[in-house]
Specification:
- It is a single chain.
- The protein is mainly alpha-helical.
- It is built from 22 helices and no strands.
- Bound molecules: 2-acetamido-2-deoxy-beta-D-glucopyranose.
- This is Major facilitator superfamily (MFS) profile domain-containing protein.
- Keywords: Membrane, Transmembrane, Transmembrane helix, Transport.
- Belongs to the major facilitator superfamily. Sugar transporter (TC 2.A.1.1) family.
Length: about 475
């Protein structure tokens, strides 16, 4: 029995992880990263397209506006997709939802691929919206599926696979966007349309994988199918213990088969884990990661790096992100979620404070600029330690089956909303305050550290039953969030 608890990763399970994560997280990371490199080319194309259509060039303001719409509509799509997670997960299943979601990716790829030919930047904007919906759904469905098929002792590591693939695909998109590859005026539509490939991959690879056994047993009440799925995944007929655990969870949720939005907000045993999930999602987005990445170009420039060296530094940063996320995949089962969140957030806090000082003093000595480059990369490393990966699957660990879809919907939608506001607010704030904008992140990080320290429970190695029991105790004890 002990042996059964320790192992767990077999060839079949690895195959399912690859089919799910490469098909889904890849979309998410790729589309996060892909738009940056060709943004100027796309702006120029919009300008000439406008002239072709109406013999009028765009003004600088019009161009900025169209580009802002294109960039922000992606986040709005993400919020909608995130909010749809619960509906998709319940109606079509976790695997079914993931498969269906590929329709959005293929539609977007077609819009991207042909927008230039059709002289239509409306198509490009529509494509960004549609792929946003796809990415939002993936961010909810994929960690849910992974977490539900994972054995307890590997749940964190398998959940981290989502962020690992995401960082790999950001890096991939940056490399493909290089001018020597696809980052040219002729080829950028192909660059964007590459997002169709992971969809085709998933449509080919995922159908042979089983549906989540928890979904089959608890939501659909099909014990035979659930046992068959579990037997396939574990590659052994000896799944008695795990079936028993799932039956307990099923018994517990018989009274309330599916938790509504209203219930999750009013019932304290659900509200506490919801608040925790939302705080973790916000910690990820409001930690300043996007601001620091955005600032990195300017930091490299002020350190006197050539354009090419700056590009290399960006690729180095992406590589560190991948390597460190991989390390966190191993560490998350050893040290636990809470420890890694705290370590990552604390490292980011110290780092961003030093970065702020370096930016203030950057004209004093040239070595300070080099120190800032190091700090930017170290910030990304600290992010990857925990805050980058843990929030995605943490929400799936805090809720039992009946509340998980609704909770994921809310959490993923909040994540995208936070990203949207950071994207919208950072530049104006930075223009207003200069480097002082980083002090906002220092304050936010401090708040998230205190919250994590006092309110977040450790979920490593615990069954969902054990975790939800903690919240019942907290809710009906003296303590509450
Ligand atoms: C649009 O293109 C024209 C002609 O190349 C150029 O003069 C103008 O500055 C461009 N406008 C913008 C907003 O880029």
């Amino acid at each position: 029995m002990v042996i059964m608890k320790v192992g767990g990763l077999n060839a079949r399970l690895s195959y399912v992880i690859i089919a799910a994560a490469f098909g889904s997280a890849f979309q998410h990371g790729f589309n996060l990263g892909v738009i940056n490199a060709p943004l100027k080319l796309i702006g120029d194309w919009m300008n000439t397209t406008s002239y072709d259509r109406s013999e009028m060039y765009l003004t600088e303001t019009e161009k900025t506006m169209i580009i802002s719409i294109m960039v922000s509509i992606y986040c709005i799509g993400g919020m909608i997709g995130g909010a749809l997670t619960g509906f998709f997960a319940e109606r079509f299943g976790r695997k079914g939802g993931l498969l269906l979601n590929n329709i959005f990716a293929i539609l977007a790829a077609v819009l991207f691929g042909f927008c230039k030919m059709a002289h239509s930047y409306e198509m490009l904007i529509a494509g960004r919206f549609v792929i946003g919906i796809n990415n939002g759904l993936n961010a909810g469905l994929c960690p849910m599926y992974l977490s539900e098929i994972a054995p307890v002792n590997l749940r964190g590591a398998i959940g981290t696979a989502y962020q690992l693939v995401l960082t790999i695909s950001i890096l991939f998109s940056q490399i493909m966007g290089l001018e020597s590859i696809l980052g040219t005026m002729d080829l950028w539509p192909i660059l964007l349309a590459l997002t169709g490939l992971p969809a085709i991959f998933q449509l080919a690879a995922l159908p042979v994988c089983p549906e989540s056994p928890k979904f089959l047993l608890i939501t659909k009440d099909e014990p035979v199918a659930a046992q068959r799925a579990l037997t396939w995944l574990r590659d052994t007929a000896n799944v008695h213990d795990e079936m028993g655990e799932m039956r307990n969870e099923a018994e517990a949720s018989k009274l309330v088969p599916s938790v509504s939005l209203r219930e999750i907000l009013t019932n304290p045993t659900l509200r506490i884990p919801l608040v925790i999930s939302l705080m973790m999602m916000m910690a990820q987005q409001l930690s300043g990661i996007n601001a620091v990445i955005f600032f990195s170009t300017e930091i490299y420039k002020s350190a006197g790096l050539s354009e090419e060296a700056a590009l290399n530094a960006t690729i180095a940063m992406g590589t560190m992100n991948v390597l460190m996320t991989f390390a966190s995949l191993v560490m998350v089962e050893k040290f636990g979620r809470k420890t890694l969140m705290l370590a990552g957030l604390s490292g980011m806090l110290v780092d961003v404070f030093l970065l702020f000082i370096c930016l203030l003093l950057k004209d004093v000595a040239s070595w300070i600029s080099y120190l800032s480059i190091f700090l930017v990369i170290f910030f990304v490393v600290m992010f990857a330690t925990g805050p980058g990966s843990i929030p995605w699957f943490f929400v799936t660990e805090l809720f039992a089956q009946n509340a998980r879809p609704t909770a994921s919907s809310i959490a993923v939608a909040v994540n995208w909303t936070a990203a949207f506001f950071v994207g919208l607010g950072f530049l104006p704030l930075q223009e207003l305050t200069g480097p002082y904008v980083f002090l906002i992140f220092v304050a936010l990080l401090a708040g998230f550290i205190v919250f994590t320290w006092f309110k977040v429970p450790e979920t490593k190695g615990r069954t969902i039953d054990e975790i939800t029991a903690v919240f019942k105790q907290t809710a009906y004890g003296a303590n509450s969030v």
